[in-house]
Amino acid sequence: MQPVCLTFDNGPEPEVTPGVLATLRRRGLPAMFFVVGEKLRDPARRALAERARAEGFPVGNHTLSHGTPLGRRGGAEAVAEITACDALLDGLQEPERLFRPNGGGGALGPHLLNAAAARHLQAGGHTVVLWNAIPRDFDDPDGWPDRALAQHAAATAPVLMVLHDLPNGAMRHLDRVLGRLQDRGVEFLATPPAACVPILRGAAQPGLGAVVSPDPAP
């Protein structure tokens, strides 16, 4: 039975994130939150990110706008998406600067980063956290639980699962899914599996090249 690392993307959202935090706290489970930077300009959403961090959940950078994946942008634009979100996270990323690129629906590949973004993340000592399980709660708010459980059951390596604290109704099923996993005896990881980390505190790891688009020809 493979362990699971839980992550939540695209928040924080006042209608949803408090319930997610309460569920995790009640079940005593670790998780990571990757927030969209521009949402932190809203004081209520900023307060939720601060609450998550105060309750012991790492908070990471999920780009400023969650727009076009960084590997499909120019170098300066991609770097700006990272730096602007880091600035808005001010103080919430300690002790580790976590970053997750947006995948445009959860796909992995060289569209995730461009070379300039990868160099910036390495120079800044970031840890990049990818994924290997996408239950698609973002576009299937009622069907994702069965998919999440099936993905876990079929896994042959530790699972890094991406969920979303978005106001689409999907997280009303969260407690049931976590209960099913706990009933299976699943261990929940506080840190991401190494296979899902192509940059660790600034150092390139195996697999980085597969998620970085090359510099354009001069």
UniProtKB/TrEMBL annotation:
Domain of life (superkingdom): Bacteria
InterPro entries for this protein: Glyco_hydro/deAcase_b/a-brl, NODB_dom, Polysacc_deacetylase_ArnD
SUPFAM superfamilies, per the entry: Glycoside hydrolase/deacetylase
Entry-linked Pfam families: Polysacc_deac_1
Annotated coiled-coil segments of the chain: none
UniProt domain NodB homology: residue ranges: 2-189
UniProt similarity note: Belongs to the polysaccharide deacetylase family.
PANTHER family: GLYCOSYL TRANSFERASE-RELATED
Purpose of the protein: Is involved in generating a small heat-stable compound (Nod), an acylated oligomer of N-acetylglucosamine, that stimulates mitosis in various plant protoplasts.
Protein name listed in UniProt: Chitooligosaccharide deacetylase
Native species: Paracraurococcus ruber
Upper lineage: Bacteria, Pseudomonadati, Pseudomonadota, Alphaproteobacteria, Acetobacterales
